[in-house]
Design brief:
Layout (H helix, E strand, L loop, with lengths): L10 H8 L4 H74 L2 H10 L13 H9 L1
Helix pairs in contact: 1-2
């Protein structure tokens, strides 16, 4: 009973020891043992190739993720450069739009401050246009 519970690799060895008296039986046992060894070799080869393929796939995914990380880092660098240029342009515009600089530019163009402010009245303009 205990022998039947042994793993399959041990059973053929015990069967070979039991049947030593019969030569044909020994040949049959040896053929079954060699075929079982071939099956075990095929299984091990299959498992080793599956593990190797999995490792290669994981390595390929890792390489692609690393390349994407470098691309992302480069795009972040370009974005930071563009933001710096935008800030520099906005600072230049703010300097040009300051009241002191605007008054200097107006004086250079020959403009004078107005003594009296005149507002546009659109109702009067319509009346003049329609007449």
């Amino acid at each position: 009973m205990a022998i039947l519970a042994l793993p399959p690799l041990i059973r053929p060895r015990l069967a070979a020891k039991r049947g030593l008296g019969n030569v044909e039986n020994i040949n049959q046992v040896q053929v079954s043992i060699t075929s079982q060894r071939l099956d075990t070799r095929k299984f091990m080869l299959l498992m080793a190739s599956a593990v190797t393929i999995n490792l290669l796939v994981i390595a390929g995914i890792n390489i692609l993720m690393t390349q994407d990380a470098f691309t992302l880092q480069e795009l972040k660098s370009q974005r930071n450069t563009a933001m710096d240029e935008k800030d520099a342009i906005l600072n230049l515009v703010n300097q040009k739009n300051s009241p002191v600089n605007l008054s200097k530019a107006a004086i250079e163009l020959g403009m004078k401050p107005a003594n009296k402010i005149g507002y546009l009245n659109y109702l009067e303009m319509e009346a003049l246009v329609t007449k």
